Amino acid sequence: MSNTDLSILNEVYDIIYDRKSNPIEGSYVCSLLNHRKGINKILEKVGEEAIETILAVKEKEKDQIVCESSDLIFHMLVMFAALDISLEDIAQEMRKRRK
Q: pTM to 2 decimals?
């Protein structure tokens, strides 16, 4: 896997973060970021997608695992953006753990 394959994560994160600063009516991301429940709504979605990912793994359905994992990662990116945590922050922590 090359770094360019992973650039989609940066692209998606950048779009999510832009929605935080420049809301667009009807945007799903904006609805999460501006939900009356605040961060709790985002955490509900992260939890829901985590459970769905676990269930897909238990069923050993690769396509479903990929699909649910993508949903989980997406909602985690929304969570990171809501909390002003960058992907670089995550990468730095992972680099520290690798040493």
A: 0.91
